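Fold it.
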Amino acid sequence: MQPILNPVANENDWVFLNRWAVKDFDIHRGEIVSLICPRNPDSHIIKRVIALEGDVVRTVKNTFEKI
């Protein structure tokens, strides 16, 4: 799967967030979420949800696969 956000060298992607959409933690596979970076609280990270609570995920040759 190709990444949906692909910044080019001198270009940026814009991301609009809706904080109220996940107030009940109703998150589904394939959605994109933004989190505060645990290593640097001044920055955010953006990730695609590939698994939910209780799912087992393993990596195979730098890709993820749900078991």
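Strands lie at 32-36, 44-48, 57-60, 63-66.
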